Amino acid sequence: MKSLWNDRDAAAFASDDLATRVYTSRLLGADESLVMHGGGNTSVKSTTQDFFGRNVEVLFVKGSGRDLCTIEKEGFAAIRLAETKMLAERDTLTDTDMAKQLRGLLMDQASPSPSVEAILHAIMPAKFVDHTHTDSVVTLSNNPNGKDIIGKLYPDCLLLPYTMPGFILSKQVFNAIRGQDVSAYKGIILHHHGVFTFSDDAKEAYENMIELVGRADKYIAANGDASIQAAGKAPDLTKGAKADLLHLAKIRRAVSKARGKAQIASLNSTPAAAAFASLSNVGNLATRGPITPDHVIRTKRTAVILGESSSGDVPEVKAFVDDYNDYFKQNNDGTLAMLDPAPRWAVWKNVGTLAFGSTQKECDIITDITRHTVWAIQTGEALGGWQALPAKEIFDLEYWVLEQAKLKRPAATVKPHLGKVAIVTGAAGGIGRAIAQQLHADGAVVVGLDINPVIKEHLNQRGLTGHVCDLTDEEAVRVSIESVVAMYGGIDIVVLNAGIFKSGQTIDQLDETWDKTIEVNLTASQRFLKHAIPYLKLGVDASVIVIGSRNYPAPGAGAGAYSVSKAGITQLARVAALELAKDNVRVNVLHPDAVFDTDLWTDEALQRSAERYEMTVEEYKTKNLLSREVKSTDVARLASTVASDVFCATTGAQLPIDGGSDRVI
């Protein structure tokens, strides 16, 4: 543990107290062994002006859930200091009332809600207060001899047993420091929770944190083997381990069912994760509880332990749900509403760890917490043992009144494809790219496939990525599909959009255009379905959307290859609807026409076509019954809707999206 303080960098933040607070907060947030994903909190006492221009003493404290790594001034809530300190003098205060009072003390109601530790920050007499959930100190306090170890390491600190965060913790500290010279302490160690440091100087408060955490690091290095043992090589799920991939899809489906909505399953099979999953006693280690109760909100109390691949279902998930129901019944006082019983992480024996979440971000957070948990557990075992707090203590935080209050708020509008996994072919541009973007906007993680390398630039963000794939290469298709399953745990939505169009050749003139069009527009889609269907059968509300064409019901002269290929893929979709219905996989066809906002239609091409019909370009774009232009986004919105629960009772349908064609009608 080394100080990251830099005098030159600090000088750039020296304009005011809050700017300095931002600088040192980011230093703490830069080290994930101190805080992760909204954890920890910091504050500074200063003055600001109220609405009437009067100077008021305030506490600038980190807003609840804000990330110290990237925090700006706006991430701090300014609350009236004197009144906040008065709250600590009360004998009792429910956390609900505490939250209301803290919001009432805000200088600006548009500010984020103050940290639940705001009262504790207020009562500390120092100007700057830092709080972290450092791995190494928590690991030591989880040792069976933790009290003795912590006591010997920190004779210059105030040592306090674990208690619930919020008012109870603030009151504990208030009583402990009352009448004492707090400057005699270098910090406060909260067992199973973390560390507080404080000073009138920002640098000193920060470097005291680094020094105190460094003591724990040195103890661990000197007294235990913290290294991760090399593991047997975990299977590479992207290279032909189909049985493992199918089992992963079954795991994801079982967890999604338990949570009542689709979940992504994110696998971590790094050497450290694989090593942990290979331990003979991993089932015991990963079910003792979290390394700190704060993690329970993200990870539940324990992991689900999964066996290796099998041809059957996943009984371990059902057992986890049953155990969670028992855990709730044993600890519920009769007033609480049970949260969903689904696991948030798993140990997949001899493979690695899994994180389950509704979004990629949620999975990433759980994966990070799990990674630190694995380190702490193995380090603790190397130091002579590792134990979590009793289940009741964990339950009390998981069912904290402030968390229960969230369940009573009006439900937010849920994106229709949240937690789903989608693949879109021909996604480099035009309709395909619009569909990929719409599905992502509607909550799905999406992989777009295209032979054009530009797809990697067009689809390049978290949960929306482009992969280069020649869809006429069956092996490349298989690898692409299996890589998506390995990445996200399954497939729920497939959009078959890839295709080529070449007109102007009558039947007697057709050459290689025929073979190439049939191969790309029809045969490639059949092969894609061949490899995707085993995973679609294990999907959540699985749906296939085939992008056909108006040329199927209303073919045009000179477009024989294209019209026949679209007729063929429409017929393939109808057969697929018949075959897959028993597995609850829906298959529907969209027939767009005259979609001109694509890369295929240049201004010059539009002008030439319009002139053939003796129209202006605008008239040509809207030459349909509704006299409106059909855009890629129109097709995309329809595709996303058809793949959603709105069309849960529809399969085998063909929907035109052409503004109304008299030839079709």
Q: Would you write up a description of this structure?
A:
The chain has 665 residues and is an alpha/beta fold. The chain has an eight-stranded mixed sheet with strand order 14-15-13-12-16-17-18-19, sandwiched between helices. It has a seven-stranded mixed sheet with strand order 3-2-1-4-7-6-5, with helices on both faces. Strands 8-11-10-9 form a four-stranded mixed sheet. Helix 18 (430-441) links the parallel strand 12 and strand 13. Helix 18 (430-441) crosses helix 25 (632-642), helix 20 (474-488) packs parallel to helix 21 (512-536) and helix 21 runs parallel beside helix 22 (560-580). The longest helix is centred in the last third of the chain and has 25 residues, at 512-536. The chain is elongated, with a radius of gyration of 30 Å. The model has no long low-confidence stretch (mean pLDDT 92).
In short:
This protein is α/β, with parallel strands linked by helices and 665 residues long. 42% of the residues lie in helices and 15% in strands.
